[in-house]
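Notes from hallway chat w/ T.B., transcribed later so I don't forget. T.B. wanted the structure written out for a chain they're using in a teaching module, and asked if we could keep both sequence and structure tokens in one place. Agreed to drop them here.
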Amino acid sequence: MVRLIAFLLLVLALGWGFSWLADRPGLISITWQDHLIETSVMVAATFVVALVAAAMIVWWLLQGVWNSPHSVRRYFRARKRDRGYQALSTGLIAAGAGNSLLARKMSARTKGLLSADQEPLIHLLEAQAALIEGKHDEARQKFEQMVEDPETRELGLRGLYMEARRLGANDAARQYAEKAVENAPYLPWAAQATLEYRCQSGHWDDAIRLLDQQRVANVVDKGQADRWKAVLLTAKAGDRLEGDPKGARDDALAALKLVKDLVPAAVIAAKACLREDNVRRAASLLESVWKLTPHPEIASTYVRARSGDSAVDRLKRAEKLEAMRPNNVESLLAVAQAALDAQQFRKARAKAEAAIRMDPRESAYLLLADVEEAESGDQGRVRHWMAQALRAARDPAWVADGMVSEKWLPISPVSGRLDAFEWKVPFGQLESPVEEGTLAADDAIAPLPPASEIAPAPRREEPRKAPATIELSVPKAEKEAAPVAARSPARSNVKPQEEKTPEIDEEVVPFFGRPPDDPGVKDPDAAQPATRLRLF
């Protein structure tokens, strides 16, 4: 663009100069060796311009002839380089597609057209071809050669890191990642790997410092960096809770400032405050997080904040949580458990059944079984609720990479990934059919009569039997009926003298889940008179 503008300006200058000379005519006289040359100014200017142009053309021709060998050599070199880059591009595409034969062929062609010192990507093509063919030793040698070149050092370190991870050499992988971070702290994979290794070793301060550096270098975005820093601060607070409650409280509060609904940080901060006998501060922290995310760990810590509280006091605290988040499953289950501890079975049963109608889960049915066991001891009803628990959905838990943990952990024990645990329903490969919705809960509750209508059945006393007598003389009609009676194992061939059936004052209605040998179930054969048989 600049050259075009300069050319236009030059043409305009020449045109303006010629027009200026045309408006001012004159003569030019030149005397040289008794020769007198006279011409006009316009002709002289034209002659000078033509002479300069001819000189430039002659110079260009002479320069082209002089530089022609170099130009020819440069042309063939460029053509060879273009062919080499074309083969390199084709080889890389073949390696990415998994075509080892074409990748090897293009690698050999590229080495014949290009030099490895001139193009370091030749080592990458050879390493990728070796990996496709399963020649990992050859691939590691190529990656080591790439580490020695400053242009491909990061690429070679990543290849060595991936090979170390594949072989399970975590120490070697950590060394490669740390070396890559020292040379290039902006690499996301190296920064992530180094951060995870620092977390696995429990060096939380170093991990937080490294995360701050990554945030400044824009390796990690702001939201993700805040989340990871909160997780690291929570892990640090958990380690300091026993020995330094004040430091643990400060770290947990700093984590809550970054992520307000981080449940483990709230629980650790509350426990640290309770160790300092600051119950009001602990309750305030748990209430603020409970309003955002109801969680059973928060409910348990909040209800049992004071070790000397009675069961009734704990029930009041659970009801306070329910008032903050009404119509919530966790609130209902917390109140039901506290009511069970306080021996208020009617309230416990009502809250548990309400939780089942909202979210039929395993813990709710087991809680109802505990209520039945504590209130009436009716094993039929207990077995009914336990059978429903086997068919219900599992309770949420801390899950990471398919592993279920009883408590929250900052990193996954399976993959070492930071902030991998999530509070969700675990997936089970072998599970019974799950019934969801309010209809399933109503079907589970409907077969049972109200607990107030169930009365304990009186115990059945066995009557005393008189000594049996055997009659040897049998009539002919009874002798023919004896084989038929002998085939029935349920009837006795012994004739008691006096057999009385005990009278039951109150008839008990059987319900679903009670075994037939339970004393509360009416025996249909008990009211029938005993059949007397005689031996022949």
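Follow-up for T.B.: The chain has a mean pLDDT of 80. Might be a good example for the class.
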